[in-house]
Every structure is written in structure tokens, then in C-alpha cells.
Amino acid sequence: MARHSYETGRLNLPFVGIATFGKRPYVEDWSKIDADIAILGAPFDFGTQFRSGARFGPRSVREASTLFSFGHAGAYDHEDDAVYLGGDVRIVDIGDADIVHTDTETSHANIEAGVRAILKAGALPVVIGGDHSINIPCIRAFDETCAKDGPIHIVQIDAHLDFVDVRHGVRHGHGNPMRRAAEKDFVSGITALGIRNVSSTTQDGYEAARAMGDDILSVRQVRRLGTEGVLSRLPKGARIYVTIDIDGFDPSIAPGTGTPSHGGFLYYEVLEILQGIAREHDVVGIDLVEVAPDYDPAGSTPILAAQVLLNFLGFIFHERAKRA
Amino acid sequence: MARHSYETGRLNLPFVGIATFGKRPYVEDWSKIDADIAILGAPFDFGTQFRSGARFGPRSVREASTLFSFGHAGAYDHEDDAVYLGGDVRIVDIGDADIVHTDTETSHANIEAGVRAILKAGALPVVIGGDHSINIPCIRAFDETCAKDGPIHIVQIDAHLDFVDVRHGVRHGHGNPMRRAAEKDFVSGITALGIRNVSSTTQDGYEAARAMGDDILSVRQVRRLGTEGVLSRLPKGARIYVTIDIDGFDPSIAPGTGTPSHGGFLYYEVLEILQGIAREHDVVGIDLVEVAPDYDPAGSTPILAAQVLLNFLGFIFHERAKRA
Amino acid sequence: MARHSYETGRLNLPFVGIATFGKRPYVEDWSKIDADIAILGAPFDFGTQFRSGARFGPRSVREASTLFSFGHAGAYDHEDDAVYLGGDVRIVDIGDADIVHTDTETSHANIEAGVRAILKAGALPVVIGGDHSINIPCIRAFDETCAKDGPIHIVQIDAHLDFVDVRHGVRHGHGNPMRRAAEKDFVSGITALGIRNVSSTTQDGYEAARAMGDDILSVRQVRRLGTEGVLSRLPKGARIYVTIDIDGFDPSIAPGTGTPSHGGFLYYEVLEILQGIAREHDVVGIDLVEVAPDYDPAGSTPILAAQVLLNFLGFIFHERAKRA
Amino acid sequence: MARHSYETGRLNLPFVGIATFGKRPYVEDWSKIDADIAILGAPFDFGTQFRSGARFGPRSVREASTLFSFGHAGAYDHEDDAVYLGGDVRIVDIGDADIVHTDTETSHANIEAGVRAILKAGALPVVIGGDHSINIPCIRAFDETCAKDGPIHIVQIDAHLDFVDVRHGVRHGHGNPMRRAAEKDFVSGITALGIRNVSSTTQDGYEAARAMGDDILSVRQVRRLGTEGVLSRLPKGARIYVTIDIDGFDPSIAPGTGTPSHGGFLYYEVLEILQGIAREHDVVGIDLVEVAPDYDPAGSTPILAAQVLLNFLGFIFHERAKRA
Amino acid sequence: MARHSYETGRLNLPFVGIATFGKRPYVEDWSKIDADIAILGAPFDFGTQFRSGARFGPRSVREASTLFSFGHAGAYDHEDDAVYLGGDVRIVDIGDADIVHTDTETSHANIEAGVRAILKAGALPVVIGGDHSINIPCIRAFDETCAKDGPIHIVQIDAHLDFVDVRHGVRHGHGNPMRRAAEKDFVSGITALGIRNVSSTTQDGYEAARAMGDDILSVRQVRRLGTEGVLSRLPKGARIYVTIDIDGFDPSIAPGTGTPSHGGFLYYEVLEILQGIAREHDVVGIDLVEVAPDYDPAGSTPILAAQVLLNFLGFIFHERAKRA
Amino acid sequence: MARHSYETGRLNLPFVGIATFGKRPYVEDWSKIDADIAILGAPFDFGTQFRSGARFGPRSVREASTLFSFGHAGAYDHEDDAVYLGGDVRIVDIGDADIVHTDTETSHANIEAGVRAILKAGALPVVIGGDHSINIPCIRAFDETCAKDGPIHIVQIDAHLDFVDVRHGVRHGHGNPMRRAAEKDFVSGITALGIRNVSSTTQDGYEAARAMGDDILSVRQVRRLGTEGVLSRLPKGARIYVTIDIDGFDPSIAPGTGTPSHGGFLYYEVLEILQGIAREHDVVGIDLVEVAPDYDPAGSTPILAAQVLLNFLGFIFHERAKRA
């Protein structure tokens, strides 16, 4: 079998063509998802507390993902001597959840419906935000599968703890998602990586988080533990949901976000943790949030998001293939 | 009396100092407003249907307003041979209404409270958005004064009609304000200037608008009528509230906005209408909305907003002084 | 019949969803085009003589076009009291021609193949560049239909004459397309509007152009003639192909282009000529070129391109419907 | 004689090569200027009262000028049916005056020395700022030639009057140059075009200006007078020095400047006045100031500056040739 | 006691409200400073040798500081398990020193007056530049308190040595401050951290610096020494003045500056040194300079400046409280 | 001898003067190169597969190089206690190779001619791209000198392997240069540093590369080996040609490039390898490619390029002087 099909088809350079995620097929009818991975955009940003603009996260990550779509039959990584996301991994892009301006609850409900549709189809949901509040409906959608398959453990890459309970009546802003998740009985715990400096969560919030099963590690603490040390803190065999707030990364590589915080993770630090999770756990859901592309004229931030997602998906399905 | 005080005080160049509107005093306690004009920021942008970012409108217009704050005793305009906004016009900046992320109703209520406080103090309210939905609480706040002093007529400078009734449950987005205003019994009518090209308002909406007393004129229609022709369509002696959506202006001078529409007004076209309104009517309230500064690295948009507001305020109080 | 379908479907705000042109269906298989209008991207920019970047023109115009995609059943224009591009006009987006880096001839051939496919399907081809050299394969593709239906007359909106014959061996750069077109026996003439200031065409080139049937008018000459005066110079009943170089517009509204030239057209000047052409002629093909979005952080240029195209298409099919 | 030399030399596209003004020769030794026109950069910006950055004006205008440097033997203008700046007009770029940070007086003295060197060589000095204060040393340098050839009349294109006498000790900032010029006995008068809105000049300043021979016209006044009306106000036969503050133009085409003011001139308005001056007067010196390129990512402002300068120089030497 | 007051007051999100430093009170009258910390802006940038724009440093750092102003009762840091800058630390913003364009000496004198006023009030002066030359008046202002309390030792975070004596007459540019400081008898020494690559200081300058008590360490040397190694080189018990040139940091996190130099410090490297200084020394003054925000559209640089300052102030007053 | 000439000449601040490389003399006539180092621009970017814009690489690196041109007699580096590039090292800038739009082969031939001219003059060629395809003509130009002096070994700093043979007919795009080099009999081998993540080279390409003598190391592999470990893999005594693709560096410091890839080299990692190469090898040619400045408004990328080149050149000639 030919390892690629350049000579029989189009050259299809990255800058050419409609920008779906990875230039994969677009499936408009959510009752007809037939894939291993389904990408859903969640362009909601009314939950932000500083700069808005994450509504353009999905489009920007889709466009950036085309930079990594050179090959027709997977991407060869010489460090791992592996071809990732070859023709055997079926990815589809199901477009965006319908967002209703001024209406947080309806918008969230539409996101939840999208994730439910993906789960029902047996595909891995990958949701691109939007602000971090979109994690709330994503997690809600897991109630049924968890009832069947057992609880999920959340790995959060983030600068901020996002563990505010209710403040001025706000329960579903981008400062609340981890609290909302911790309240679910099908969430067994949270490992929060990269948490640093001030945020909207107060000292009370940290105390509550720890009491509710949140293992909080700063960037420097993660560095001291090393990749393996971090992985060893995850519950063995747990089914993992990964939520990546792009501001968990350092502003040097992720400036296009609403609430940047210096002192964040560099690329390989996160990549190697994700590769370890893929190796040791079943990853059941992913969201990546808070890419606000218009604050980053160079486009580094959506490129980072796309590069992390495509590599992580490659790791997950490479391991699945090995296990199969 | 000295016409300025450069020699006795600070030089106070535009780039120097805290950026309140026009570098005027900041009044934190809304029960202590003692001024002719009070500036209120309304940094709300969950009502936008395309690009967000109008939440930074108030800060950007304040900073831009410092460019026009050279003088200590008013600004001399050689075309009019007049000194505007001299020491006799007391302007204060009362800061921003408190905005609650994800919560449109509470945020709007806080804006309404600010406008009520200004009206109670007998000052002219000037509200800087935020998206155009913030006009809704601004108008609501006029119920009491209108009960006393009679209804208001709204002059809207805008690319879009903003006359959507309810859609997907949304009543308070940036496509709805003029419908909400027209529903008030203390709003006697609307004159909409600059309306052009497609928008969220459908044909139904235009028909409803006309039926509810909206006089709709495009940019080209305004040009054909001329300033005096436009002014003659306003009800004689009406108390006027002016709402300026910065996208009423052309994208060439107002690119920093959420939903730009080509073919808009140029500077003098609006300025001369505003000067005519100031001359012939009592102006009782102003809002200026939809400045999204981060889409305009050159800063032309907030500078336009500040220049229009400062000139308009100058005209209003110059005419008031002549009448007095 | 409902005039729109907001209540039965998605709200589908402009910032939501995959960015095809006007959010219309994507047709990947060029042998299956069944539509009135087919959009083709031609992301080729090796023909530019100053700033490159027009390769991102198609993606940027697609994304900008979503701003004008509020309605589900056409767009109401209150100035014309008409609904444009209603459900009866079928538009599809057929993606981009395959571009081969370093290889101008193959890239042009792929563009030509796309236009031929559209013409074969009986749809109106609308090609979004890329630099102006992509007009060369577009025109080439008309040989067969012209053999059948008669020649075409080209209306060119542009700052530059683009009438260089061959220079340093270059025949297919962005300075050559009108010369290449004039050489075709199925091109009956050219009307060049907006030509001004220096460009790569020398005095010889102007003389050759006039000798080969090019009617050259500057912006100021167009203004003196007026819309009707310009329209009257077009051959009566001619089948018209319109090529719009975005730099025909003024840099104030089209800064995102490779070779800006001050003193260009404003929005309504071009719009009204296009509306007149739609009224009086059969429009058989359109290209819009030289949008280089990364030079315009505000996005005014792709928004202009989308607004012009959508209005022009609306005019064409509105007139077609009236004639039918 | 060949009208151009494309086939015998380099193609030399605009983006290729060292960026001197118009890609003309660089003359480092100011005692060896042998040319009709000499370009001098004056990258001084300590005189600005709002945004700095005009120090990069000279480099940015040089780079932009390459866009208009297609031809080897002058530029053909089809509107005028004329070839401008052909091989018979010798232009050199003598680089920049040496600027000493923190030291206004020494920097100004170095600019003055450059202009004196150009005048001594019998060339037309064209100085690119830098902020408008650099006009002060430019004018100073004319004392000797004026003693010989008679006084100069200054035509100022500007948003601001720049007629502040002394304030807080400042005599040589960008708000002072016209006052300093008016004090010279070899300056017979000033015609100030485009003056509008507030600036650092107070009412006193306007009165003083008029008393000292300054004919002040706003943009709207210029429009009412028309080009010929404006030209008729210039003293017949006067030797003219033209100082162009780029902020005299509208922010829509000149956003990259320190103190933008809406309501400015459009391109042809200034171009036609300059063409009229070239036709009717001897132009003895030019400066163009306040281009702050980093505020204009699209580059429209330096392109405008280069386009205006190259056209104006073309007009001047075309008329000189006709007179000769 | 409640740890915060969210429920009783405003939510006061970061993007809401007038941008004073940390949203702390503005004190206009410098004779009425009653605080532990007073922030002074010094928007002076005529001393720069490459890109200007540091005049907008103070406003940009103030605006960025609001991102870290979530809490009403201090900021909880989970790594240190400490609440920093709680209600017991009184911070005021006293606005900007008056800057006079073209006049370095007067501008510097006004900065000096501001620092003297702060010192007289017994508060810690924190001066936000402006270019590094503003350190000169800051240091001058310490003569009296040093006469009383003993000399100061300066810790300089910087890419450049800034030890030029006099060149072309310039004594007070941004290349001179450390030389000027070293000349004071109340400055006991300098520790310069981060110095790298070429700068305006010549080999002579380095020799003079060492001779005058300057301990010069590059980024790599600091890394080899480690935080404790660096701290051990500071004179025990010395009263410390810290001057932070933002270009001491790496351009990856501080691109918005006038003279960037690759190979700079990362965030924690500086933070941990500052935390060590706070622990072991009495910090008597701080300046942070060379933030030129308009070169950083993402805003990372002012965010870094605000984050460093707020953390450093937190450390200082946390240690003071422990000692008390 | 004076170590600098500040007092006898101009101050010549970085922002002053014509932007040749390092402000060194411009030599237009390529038959008259008399220097140790000659800089050639190669503004060709038709070979790029994602974002174009590298055509402005040469101008941007030249302008950035002026930031490091403070001194008149070399630059003192305190870490090495050495003065680099003193008056004894003669650098000239020979401008750009002539680029012909749409024509890859002619453009490459012109680049080759430039490098041949430099080699013929006995100077070290330093070519600034342009995209990486320009390495192809650079290497071709070495055939004659290699025939005389022996083969060259290439050290490639890059994110991508660039080892595509022929695809869709493309042999000279930016994905092909290392394959083209490896085919030459005068290229003895390649050491590729920084290669990571997906690119246009497929698994086949990696296998071919290794078979043809390419030693491929990722960023993480280089880090594990350390500088000395990497240097030890280079063939002892080999004459080295260094090709630096700026995307070998991390996007945090080199965002302005066409195909950014996260996880790249930091500054000192590359600098120390280059310093080691200079110490241990004869460096016979350098190119630095893929700087696309318009994607980096902060200018960090061209500054990095200039800083790396100037330091590397300093190291090379410092070592040459020691050997001599």
C-alpha cells in the first residue's frame, strides 16, 4: 500500500481549501456521525472576565490545523518513529454548536447536545472553545456514558483553578467549571496542572477544591515532579477527560487568550504529560478552550492549539491500535 | 480672566495622566454627582452577533479623549470662532456600571441604575458602550423624567436597524434595542440615519419599525436630503436622545467595531447633523456604542468616538449658554 | 410562506459554523455542481510584484462573508425594497483550485479546470483570488462557451492597467492579465475603471491597450462621467465578465492588498456601476482578486470583498428573475 | 531612444533592493551633492505631544517609495499623458541628519546643516520627518538663499495650526513651527490648509497667527473654495515652501501618525493643490512630517507620503522643464 | 471576618472601571499621600536610542494591572499559601509626573519631585516609566532619606549596562542611568543582572562600571549561580533599590520594548530573585521601565510588568508584616 | 588607538540612516566586492507551502541589524570579554538578487550568480532569504570552490527536514533544499538540528535522508546531547556551510515565519552550537531564511535573525584572527 497519495490526487498545500479541522470531512447532520473522533466548535465567550474573543477560537484552530495537514496518509514523527493519524483513524468535523447571544443557558445546552450526539455515535468528542465555561455542558453530557462505563477523572491544564462556586449569581462563567464538574457524582476527581498566581478563585475556593478531590499543582511543582511524577498521581486505570485551557501554557507561546498569566507551561512539558496519559489511560473526552486569536497577530496560539490537539489525538489512537 | 492656565499649572500633555474621560474628575459615589455632564461606561458585549470586544470601548474612548485635552479652559474652534467646553461646563466621569459575566439582565440593570443616578443629579447622561444592547437600559432609565418632562424622540446613527423583536428568545441583544425603545410610551418616535445593507433585521422588522414610528434613512438618502433636510424631519421642539452606533460611520474611519458595514457616514456628515440637533433641540441623553478597539491597531475608532462626543457636548452646552 | 426560518432551525449567528462562502454548501466533486452560482478559490500569489499574501484571500473572504449571512431566506435591502439571494438562488462553494508552489503554469491550469467545470455545469463562476494573474486562466476557460454564445466584454475595476506584454520572460504575472485577455479572439473589448498613478505598465503599454480596444478611465474620469455615463460606454447588450481588483478601491477601505494606490473608488461608486451592469447586461463571470488579509488587522478589506460580491450577485439574480 | 530599460538591466521589482528613496543613489558625503532633488531624513520625535514614533518616518517612507519604483525611465501618468521623473531628473538620497537623544537643539542643528548642504548644492531639499518641529531647522536654513533670492511663502497642509509661541519653556516642539517661521523676516506669509478641531494652539494663537500673516483655512473652507479658489489666495509669483503634516490628511488614509484628527483631506484634494502650486510657483523646499509607521500595520500612511511626494516632485520638474 | 467582599459590593471584573494601578485610589494632591505604596507614572521617552513609545508605559501597565484585580481582600497564592496585598496594605496611584516635550531636564525634575513627595509621605515609591533615563531623577530624589537612613544598593534587571558617561553631550539618556547612579555618594553599589550582547556601553564603560562597584552578571551567569548564589552577592543588610528594565526579560515575554535583546530572563528567574530580596532586605524604591506597549498587540509585556510589580509588592509587604 | 570614534563622527543612533546590513557600505557592482563578508538578500518566497511574506526578510533583517550598530569599532561582549567585528572585519552589503515574479528558475539563477560573485571575491557569503528554497542556488554556487578546496558539510538549523525529492513536479520549493544539497557530490553530509513534528517530508523522505548521510536530531535530542555532544557528531575539520531556517527557533522568539512549529530552539542553544562551529571549523557560507516580518508586529523575529548573524559572524572572525 502506498504510504501517501500525493501523486494520485491533489497536492493540497496547507493554505488551500476549506478550513475544517485537519481538512477532514464536515458532517452537518449530527445523527449521522460515523467516526473515531468528532470535532465540535463551541464559540461561546460571554463567560470571560477580561478580554473576550474566544468565540473565534474554533475557526482559528481549524485554520491553523491545516498547517499540519500536509500528508494524505498520516504524519510521520521521527522522534517516535511512528506515523500518527493514518487513514485508519476517521476524524470528522461536525461544525459548531448553535450559540445564542445574551443567553448562556441555551448556548450551553446546544453544546451539551453536540457532545451527547458524539458520545452516542461512539466517537471521541473533541470540543474547541470558546471560553472555559463550555467545559460545563461538555461534562454534563457524560452522565449517561458514565452511568454505563464508570466515572471520569478530569485532567485540567490551566493557569487558573476555575473553582468559584457562585458569585453575584454566576454559576456558569469561565471561573466556575471545575467546581461544577466536582459536584457531579460521575466525576471521580480532578488533577489541576499549571495553576499559578492570582485568579478569580479565592483562598476559600482552593480549600473547597482540595476538599472535593482536586489535586492542585503549579507549573513549578509539575517541573519538580517531572512527567512521570505527575502521571503517578493520576488514579490508575482511570478514564480520563482532558480539559486544556490554553492559558495553562506560557504567554510566550499562547499570547492570544483572554486572561494570560506569565510563568506557564512550555510545549514539551504538556505534550509529554498528554503522551503519558494516552499511554496509560483511556481518554474519553477533550476540550481545548480560551484561544482568542485576534490578540495574536502572529497566529502562534491557534497553531499551538492545533499542534497539541493533533499530536494528542495521534498518541491516543496510536496507543489504542497497539492495545487492539 | 486668563483664557488658559498653562503657565500656572501643569502642561499636562495628552499622553500624561490617568485616563478618565477628557481627564475630568472621577466621581465614584453615584449619589454625589454634581455636574452638567456625567460620563458612564457600560462595558457589556454579550449582545454582539459577530466580533466581540466592545467591553473595552469605555477605556479606549477615555484614553482617546485625552488627545483632545490640551487646553485648560476649553477648546477653541476656528471654524465656529467659539470656545467649547470651557471652565463653565462641569463634566465628571462616574466610571463603569458593574458588569456580571454571563448575566445580561443584571448587567443591564446596573447600567440602568447608573443612568438613573445621573438623571436624578440633573446632569446629561453620556453612556459609552459596550454593544448596542446597552441602549436598552439607558432608555428604560428615562421613564421617570419623561413622565415629568414629556417624551423623548430618538435619533439613531447606525448601519443596522436593530429592530428585531424576539428571536430564539433573545430580546436584549444588540439587534433589539430600537424595538425595545419603540415599545415605550415615553418614546415618541425614532429617526434612524445611516441604515444600509443586510443586517439581522428582516423585511418584517422594517415594516414593523415603520409602523411603530421609525423614520428610516440610508446614508445615500441622508446625502440627498442634506443636513437641513434631515433636521426638518425631526419633530419640532422634540426632546432628543441620541444613540450613536459607531458602525453608522464608514469602516474607513471606524474599523474597530463588531459588525462593520461599508458605505457609512463620513465625519462631517454626522457632525453637522449633531450640531443642528444641538441648535434646534434639547438633547437629554447620549450613548455611543460598539467601539471594539482591539480590531483597530491605529486607534482611529476610539479617536473618532472621542472627537464626536467632545464636539457634540461642546455644541450642546454652547447652545444652552446662548439660550440662557 | 415564512420569509425566514429562524424559529424552526438554528440561530446560526455569523461567528458560528464552518466558513464556506455565505455558509453555503461545499461541493467537493466538481463533476456534481448543481447550482446557479459556484464559488471557486484561487489562492495563488506568486505573480505579485510587491507584498504577497493574496493566497489567504479566499479563506478571508469566506470568513467575512459569514457576517452577511444572518438570514435564512435572503437579505432585505430597504433602499431597493428587495430581498436578495433568497432561497431560489442556489449558491455552492466548490473549494479551492489546487496550487503547486513554485509552479505558475500548473497552478493556473488547475484554476482553469475549476472554471471550466463551473461553466460546464451552467453555473455562474465567481473566482476569489489570489493575485490578479488568476484572471488569466479564468478567461482562458471561456473559449468554449464563447464559441457557442458569442464573445465577452471585460469590465475591470482596478488601480493598475495590468497590460504588460512580456517582461523578463514573464507573461503570467499580476501585471499581465488584461494583455492576455485582449489577445483572445473571444474577448471583444475591455473597459478599465479606476486606473491611476504609476504601475508596472509603461506608456507603451497604454498605447497598446488603447489600440487593442481598452477603454481606460481613471477614478476622477469615472466621477466626472457618473454611473450612467460609464454604463453608456459599455457595448450595448454585451455579455460581461467583471474582474475586480480590490486595489481599485481606495486604501481607506481596502488596505489589505499587495500594491495599494491612493485615490481609489469608494464603495457606492463601484456598487452602483455593478448594479447598472446587472440591470443592463448578462454577467457571465466574476473574479475578485488581490485581497491580502494579513495586511489588514481590522478585516475591512475581506469584508468589503464579501459585501461587494454578495450585493453584486444579489443584483444579477434579482434582474434575472425579473427578466424570466 | 528606449523609453525604459527593462530588457537590458534588472527587473528590480519594488520589493527587491536597498530601500533608499525611490531606490535612487545614496550620497553619504554632503559636500558632494550633485542632483536636482536631495532627500534628507530627519528622524526626530521628541517634539510630539501624543504618540511618538515619527522617528521611523524616513525609513518607512523610503521603503514605501519602492512601490512606485517600477520603471527605469520615469512614470507614465495616463490622466496627464505625461512621463514624470524621467532620467533627466536627478534625485539623490543623502540619508538622515544625525539625531542626539534627549537633545533637541543639537538634533535640530544637524537637520539644519543638511538642508544648508542641499541648498548650497543648488538642489531642491525634500526633508522627511520626524515630527513637525523639524520644520524649524528646515526654515532656518533658508536665510542665506532668501537673502539672495527673496523671501519664501509657506504653504502648510496640516490639521493643527502649530502656532504656539512658548509654553512651559517649549519653543521648538511640534506645536511651535509655524510661529517660529512667521517670526523670520524672510518668510513673507503662511497659508495654512486643513486646520480643524482642537489642538495645542489656543484662541490667542489663532489671533496672533492671523496678525502675523497666516491665512487659515479649514478642510471645509478649502472644499468650498475649490482648488482654484485656494490657489488664488497665494501671493502671485511667490517662491513657495511646502510643509506637509501627514495629519492634514484624513485618518482614513493616514492613520499612522501621532495626533490624528478626523475630517481631514482626501488624496486628490491635496494632490490638485500641489499640482497647481507646481504650475504657478517656484517650489524651493518641501518637508513631509509626522508619519509614525508603527501605528499603521497596513502601511497606508507611508505609501500615501511616498505617493504624494513622488507626484509632487514629478509635477515640479515637469513644469520646470516646460518653462525651460 | 469575611475574606472578601464580593457579595456586599460590586463584582468589579478586571475589564470594568477606571484604570488606576490595581484599581487603587487616585491621589491627585501630592501633599496628601497617605499610603504604604505610591505609584507614580513617568511617561518620558526622549531618551531612547531605537524605538520610542515608552511614554505609554504607565497607562498600559495600569490597564494590565486590572487583570490581577479580581479580589477585594488580597490575592491568594497557593504556592506560597499566602494572601498578598490584603486590605492592610494601602496602595495609592498618584498619577504621572508632568512631562514637557523637547525638554529632558524639566521632565526629569518633575519626576524627581514626585518621588520626593512619596518619600516625604513615608510611602514606598514605585515609578513606572518611561525609558530607563527616568531612573536618574528617581535616584536623585533619595539624597535626603539616604542622608538620614544610609546609602542604597541598586539591583538592576536589564539587558544593557546603561553605563555610558557622556557621549555627544548626552548625560541623561537611557544609556546613562547606572553611571549617574554610581556617581552618587549615597549609592553604595550596583548589582546588574541580565546584561548581555552588544549595547551602547563600550568596553571602556564596562571597565569603568566594575571600577565603580558594579557587579555585572549575564543571564547565563545568573543561571549558573542560581537564585541563592545571586542573592549571596548582595551586601548583607543593604537597603535595596530595584530598577527593572523590562528588556532584562526575554523578548518572548517582553516584546513590547524599545531595544529588545534575545536571551533574556524568564519569569520565575526574576520573580524568585525579587522574592529573595524582599525576604532578606529592606526594599526602599522600585522603578520599572521601557514598556512600549504599542509594539506588543497581544499585551504580554504590560501584563508581565503588572504581574511582576504586584507580586514583588506582595512579597515586600508580606515580609514586612512578618517582621513587624 | 581610540576604541571607538563617537566623539569625532556622528552619534549615528540605531534608528538613524539608510538600512543596509549593520549600516555597512552598499556595493552595487558585484564585480567590485572587496571585503571579508558580503551580505546578499534573496527576497524569493514562491516556494512556501503556508504563509508567504519571506520576500521582506532581507529588508527586515537589515533594519533590525541597525539595533546592534551602536558602536564604531566593534561590539564588546562582556561574557566573552571580546570585541567582535571591529574595524578589521570588512563587511559589505551587495543588495538583493534580482527576483522575477512567477519564475522560480530565473530567480534562483540570479541568487546563484550573487553567491558566485561573493565567492569569487574571496568573501564569506551570507545570504538572507527568502524562503528555504533559496538555499538551492546558494549550494549550487559552491561547485567551483569545492572542486578546489574540498567538499562542504551542511549544518541545518530547522524545524523541518526539507528532504522532499519531487512532488507534483516540484523540485525547487522550500521543502526540497536538503535533498537537492545531498545530491551534490561536493556536499559530504548534512547535520540537521531541531527537526520536529510533522512536515511535508514523509517517512520515505526521512529514510532517504538517512541513507544519503543526513544526521537528524530533534530539539529534545539536541538538548540531551548538549552543545559538545552535538559538535562531536560533526566530521572533524570539515568545512561547514550553515543554513538557518528561522523556524528552527521556537515560535516564542520567531513568530514571524511561514510555517511555525512549537517546541523549537531557544536563543543560547543555537548560539552556543554556532560558537562551537566557529571555533572548530572553517565556516564557508551562511544562509538565514524564512523570516516573514509582517507576521510579527513586535519585530522579534528579524531582531533574532540579526542578533544571531552578527554574533555568529563575530565568532567566526574572532576565531580566524586567533588562528592567523
UniProtKB/TrEMBL annotation, chains A, B, C, D, E, F:
Q: What class of enzyme is it?
A: hydrolase
Keywords tagged on the record: Hydrolase, Metal-binding
CDD domains for this protein: Agmatinase_like_1 (cd11589)
GO MF terms, alphabetically ordered = agmatinase activity
- Presence of the UniProt keyword Transcription regulation in the record: no
Q: Key word Disulfide bond present in the record? A: no
Q: Name one Pfam family in it.
A: Arginase
The record's InterPro entries line, in alphabetical order, gives:
Agmatinase-rel, Ureohydrolase, Ureohydrolase_dom_sf, Ureohydrolase_Mn_BS
Which Enzyme Commission number(s) are on file for it? 3.5.3.11
Family indicated by similarity:
Belongs to the arginase family. Agmatinase subfamily.
Protein name per Swiss-Prot or TrEMBL: Agmatinase
- Top-level taxonomy: Bacteria, Pseudomonadati, Pseudomonadota, Alphaproteobacteria, Rhodobacterales
